[in-house]
Amino acid sequence: NAGVTQTPKFQVLKTGQSMTLQCAQDMNHEYMSWYRQDPGMGLRLIHYSVGAGITDQGEVPNGYNVSRSTTEDFPLRLLSAAPSQTSVYFCASSKQGMNTEAFFGQGTRLTVV
Amino acid sequence: TQLLEQSPQFLSIQEGENLTVYCNSSSVFSSLQWYRQEPGEGPVLLVTVVTGGEVKKLKRLTFQFGDARKDSSLHITAAQPGDTGLYLCAGWGSGTYKYIFGTGTRLKVLA
Question: Could B106 and A40 be called an inter-chain contact, meaning their C-beta atoms sit closer than 8 Å?
Answer without folding.
Answer: yes
